[in-house]
Predict the 3D structure of the following.
Amino acid sequence: MNNRISTGMMFNQSINLMMAKQSKMNHLEQQLATGKKLVSAKDDPVAAGTAVGLDRAVAELERFERNGDVVQNRLGLQENALAQAGDMMAHITELTIQANNPALSSSDLKAIASELKSVQEGLLALANSTDGTGRYLFGGTNDSEAPFKLSNGVVTYSGDQTQRQIEVAPDTFVKDVLPGSEIFLRIPTGDGRLDGSAAAGNTGTGVLTTFGQHAASGSWNGQSYTVRFTAADTYEVVDATNTVVQTGAFKSGEDITFQGVSMRIEGEPAAGDSFGVGAASSRDIFATLDGLISALDTAADDPTAVAHQQNVLQGALRDVARASEKFIDARAAGGAQLKAIDDAGALRDANSVTLKTTLSAMRDLDYAEAIGQYQLEQISLQAAQTIFTQMQQMSLFNAIR
């Protein structure tokens, strides 16, 4: 094998060396200008591929953060709306207690009814609150139109019962605002388990003031019972099949206990009057207010009408108390979700710091190292240029002269 040395070969080697040094310096200049170690994927294909995956993870965390901001805003608005609704319930309770004063005249009661109507309108407006983007808070997933509508004096719900779940961190979901049906409509009556009421056709002045479970008289089996007065001072208790389960003498203000239940009736019931007790059902707050307003708007000109009005007021007080509890429970549920969002935010922040630190180690330039290498390449290029200049003055012909 012959190794041939020629002037052209030496020139080409020198030029190639200078070009390589200039290319390296150009690359270092790009790194210094951008502050990035990976100017293109060819610099380190494995690191570049890993960095793309980490970029996606960081972008996903940012998407989760935006999700969290949206649902946090909606839950905050729910909290504000329910706080105002709770204040309204307190005001309704005050007005109802005030209306229960027998000294008030018919015009006084009508004035209270008028104020209750205003409160009801305000409550309806709260139920149709929006989140500031045109979406209704309490419509479930059907939130493009007002969920509560007043038609022919009756409030109806057009939303759905779906509660969204939003991902705010990897595999971490929080619940959005409760649908309005769970807050304003499905409110337990009575004490939440039992409910009692006076029959609409009562002719006496008996008023059902309290009722509840009574362990001393047995265990309530969940059935409905009716206390039926056979005379002004005697009663019988019948079950749902009209079977008499107990009889007794009546005294106003004393508890009547039977089958794990107690009832207290005040006033003077008439023979044939009846009072029922059984498992609590549910009623929407708007219907409760409608009944209360109607009772106050109706003139109570005789003791029987007054007793009927007082029974409605007593029932309304119980139902409003349950509505207040419902609002408090909804606020507590919303608060738990807000806490979950805060916890998810802390998790996102920790993950984001880790990912960005790893990305920085892969991509960000070590300026001290890069500047030192640049200076070294600059010196090397100057040396190559000096050698090339010297080689221009040399020729193989000089060696054979």
Summary: DSSP finds eight helices and 14 strands in the chain. Residues 36-192+282-364 form a domain with the f41 fragment of flagellin, N-terminal domain fold (CATH 1.20.1330.10). The longest strand covers residues 207-213. The mean pLDDT is 86.
